């Protein structure tokens, strides 16, 4: 999206590389502190009244509240979210991933401040990362409870149905909170879908560097060598064979496939 490219040119130097590591590291610290003192979790939660009273740390610490109080499930969630977040950053680029996460955080803070919502308000933001991954790679397979294989596209439908149920019970407050938490998802996927577009995986850093290097080649010199940066592990096609062909990584076998063979290849 062009406006993201403009923002990246102006503010890209402020983006935090490997953002997911720092977020989960903070959650790990908060998890240990919670084991030592359960009241730490309460002190980290978002509360606009407490913030206005001088507890400014709550503007940040709510994103570090552990996703689970169980050690086993916390470790599992850290592994899942780090894998998903790191992959999204590789696909989109550091700045885009930072923008996605922090625009959702900012929107959530605004809605919660206006409506007086307090507590662990980062839950939906974290879930939106999974939704983005599943939307980009709908044919990826996840294993519920490590046993039941489920395609990512079906889990997307399940999550939106779950959001619908929560909105049904929580009313306009739940709707605004969920919508704010999904701000990044709406910008990256909702708006392009309305325009009939799709959010694509960003070119690899090596490809970007190659293009930048070619800008400095004097005119009249030898023609540029065309290099393929994507190759389907099944059919062998690259973007040189078809510039419009899309490529995705399989989260199970960690190989790249064209969109035609992503869902039909064997592990």
Kindly describe this structure.
The protein is mostly helical and 267 residues long. The protein contains 11 helices and 4 strands, in the order ααααααααββαααββ. It has helices at residues 2-11, 19-36, 39-44, 48-52, 58-61, 71-92, 94-115, 123-136, 152-181, 183-194, 205-215, and strands spanning 141-144, 148-151, 247-249, 256-258. The strands form 2 sheets. It has a two-stranded antiparallel sheet with strand order 1-2. α6 (71-92) crosses α7 (94-115) and α6 packs across α8 (123-136).
- Biggest sheet, in brief? 2 strands, antiparallel
Strand content: 5-15%
Task: Give, in spatial order, the strands making up the sheet with the most strands.
Answer: 1-2
The overall pLDDT, averaged over residues, is: 82
Structure described in brief:
The protein contains eleven helices and four strands, in the order ααααααααββαααββ. The strands form two sheets. The chain has a two-stranded antiparallel sheet. Strands 3-4 form a two-stranded antiparallel ribbon. The two termini are 34 Å apart.
List key phrases describing it.
267 residues; mainly alpha; two-stranded antiparallel sheet; 11 helices; 4 strands
